Amino acid sequence: MTVGIVIVSHSAALAAGVVEVAAAMAPDVVLVAAGGFDGGLGTDIDLVSNGIAAAQGGDGVVLLYDIGSAKMVADLAVEMLGDPEQAAVVDAPLVEGAVASAVAAQGGATLDEVLSAAASALNLE
Amino acid sequence: MTVGIVIVSHSAALAAGVVEVAAAMAPDVVLVAAGGFDGGLGTDIDLVSNGIAAAQGGDGVVLLYDIGSAKMVADLAVEMLGDPEQAAVVDAPLVEGAVASAVAAQGGATLDEVLSAAASALNLE
Amino acid sequence: MGCDARSVAAAVVAAAGVVGEHRDELVRLDQAMGDADHGENLRRGFGFVVSALDESTPDTPGAVLKLVASVLISKVGGAAGPLFGTSFLRAAGAVGAAEELTPELVSAALGAALGGVVARGKAELGDKTMVDALAPAASARGADIPTLLTAAAIAADAGAESTIPLVARKGRASYLGERAIGHLDPGARSVALLLRSFANSAMGL
Amino acid sequence: MGCDARSVAAAVVAAAGVVGEHRDELVRLDQAMGDADHGENLRRGFGFVVSALDESTPDTPGAVLKLVASVLISKVGGAAGPLFGTSFLRAAGAVGAAEELTPELVSAALGAALGGVVARGKAELGDKTMVDALAPAASARGADIPTLLTAAAIAADAGAESTIPLVARKGRASYLGERAIGHLDPGARSVALLLRSFANSAMGL
Ligand SMILES: Nc1ncnc2c1ncn2[C@@H]1O[C@H](COP(=O)(O)OP(=O)(O)O)[C@@H](O)[C@H]1O
Ligand SMILES: Nc1ncnc2c1ncn2[C@@H]1O[C@H](COP(=O)(O)OP(=O)(O)O)[C@@H](O)[C@H]1O
Ligand SMILES: [Mg+2]
Ligand SMILES: [Mg+2]
Ligand SMILES: [Mg+2]
Ligand SMILES: [Mg+2]
């Protein structure tokens, strides 16, 4: 298994697009789009919690977010798990961080390694 | 008029989603999604060039990109205009930079001001 | 009559009504500095809260607050969801299993609510957020609940007004830079509206 | 027979055939370090180039190169599009309106092509990109075009092989860090394939 990834966004299209772009370099990684709320823009904690469950393969889940409440909802969903080994929210640019995370996870990186790959994403091109 | 914005991405969904999120804070800004290639993942110079034309309202156009060839295609499309006053590519995280650009443009910022707003996007939340 | 689960639930339902009446005002405030959804986010969220309370009134004040928290967290798609949600959740924790609220418990609940918003959103006083209304409210004191909540509402009102000349350093409005100056923060306004409504409910007890 | 527009076009068509034959190999190389599309990107792009040349053969070598450039730029959806596109465009500029290529013009074209790739992609030698194949090729010399292009092809081959032990610092492969070590860069491989094909065409002149 690899670390799983959840993309938390205000937009369903944005989350799906980030998953699509990141998946192109990480065919074996479970990437889940958790975007949009109630058919429109917004963040949805249930989508995020279900996304974590879907992305969890035993090696942990990394969450990336777009802006504002997406981070808060990601944090809340992780806190609700009650186990910091299971999932972590990373503070990284969304698209760049998602690609870096996905590539790291594809390479068999641990949760901590994926987090640091995401955090240094902007220096790559 | 305001500065226009073109989102260059490998994914049509990603570009459309970024436009959707940024537009929520910038109702008067022309935001154009230039994502995907030939129905799949990839970058499309014609979409980008047409996007610049569509976003051009006389005050200039800012282009943001996701990864790799998206930057090169954006650069090429701008060079093909042959006039650096018309459009500029900004090196910023895509989603965060797009929101910052859109908000700046909505506020009547000039092309240069939008570019610096985008470039400092990651410090905001 | 004491401040039991039923009165807390009634105060929440009354507050939902106030949120509904001020929906458009909150939308306009958020339009100037954000994405114009704050009023609708809250109206919708409190609508679900009222439905949840219609279905079952939990039997302690803490349980009411906890129900409010979980509904807001899952039914509000903007920052107000996790922020108000966390604040109601922490307030619920502060009042524990008490059958009736006391001024001390209300004061503890307000302090915990503030702690929750700060933990969730990391804003400091002066960042032009709901913290600027909630922090002074949490410092209010009073010998009885109506007095305490009235003092809190007055403090929240002043705190909300104090956001007008500020630049925002958290939330969407932080993208506006200097252009945020001159605008009242929508979240601070809704905190003030909720506390005013709670104070009015308490006076009617 | 000299190296006129018609022979340059024929060399491009032959190169398109080689690209098609190596499509799967290039896909596999890009699968190890990228998004597995390099072979298909090039096969498809050169397919459009061949169609464009079928419709009209431009009347100078420079015009052929320019047509190749514009087709690759608009029909290749990956990095190879703007990179090869810019290189063919710069090469076209270097040979100008000449009716026939000379060794000096071919050498100038290779240098300009390298300049174009570097201007577009900002990679330096050793960044594990097509630059590692094109830069040594552009330094090759020869008294006649077949000799020059053969030397360039040999240099490009060696340059491509030299990418194997490297870590990538540009392009998608840069995301892989150390895991790129041990893999041949797909873009460097395709530069080598194109130059080998051009050399073969020149020998048949
Ligand atoms: N990090 C934060 N800390 C405290 N309050 C915040 C924070 N971010 C946003 N807010 C509050 O949330 C309000 C906006 O709420 P709302 O419009 O529902 O959310 P959104 O910005 O997601 O659309 C702001 O007016 C502000 O008071
Ligand atoms: N910045 C760059 N400078 C030079 N060459 C690059 C650069 N980025 C990518 N490349 C080359 O492009 C090749 C990948 O091409 P391709 O697969 O068509 O593009 P993409 O990465 O967009 O899918 C790499 O093997 C490398 O040689
Ligand atoms: Mg809002
Ligand atoms: Mg919102
Ligand atoms: Mg590729
Ligand atoms: Mg590609």
UniProtKB/TrEMBL annotation, chains C, D:
<dbReference type="InterPro" id="IPR012737">
    <property type="entry name" value="DhaK_L_YcgS"/>
</dbReference>
<protein>
    <submittedName>
        <fullName>Dihydroxyacetone kinase, C-terminal domain</fullName>
    </submittedName>
</protein>
<dbReference type="InterPro" id="IPR036117">
    <property type="entry name" value="DhaL_dom_sf"/>
</dbReference>
<dbReference type="InterPro" id="IPR050861">
    <property type="entry name" value="Dihydroxyacetone_Kinase"/>
</dbReference>
<dbReference type="Pfam" id="PF02734">
    <property type="entry name" value="Dak2"/>
</dbReference>
<dbReference type="GO" id="GO:0019563">
    <property type="term" value="P:glycerol catabolic process"/>
</dbReference>
<keyword id="KW-0808">Transferase</keyword>
<dbReference type="InterPro" id="IPR004007">
    <property type="entry name" value="DhaL_dom"/>
</dbReference>
<feature type="domain" description="DhaL">
    <location>
        <begin position="6"/>
        <end position="200"/>
    </location>
</feature>
<dbReference type="GO" id="GO:0005829">
    <property type="term" value="C:cytosol"/>
</dbReference>
<keyword id="KW-0418">Kinase</keyword>
<dbReference type="GO" id="GO:0004371">
    <property type="term" value="F:glycerone kinase activity"/>
</dbReference>
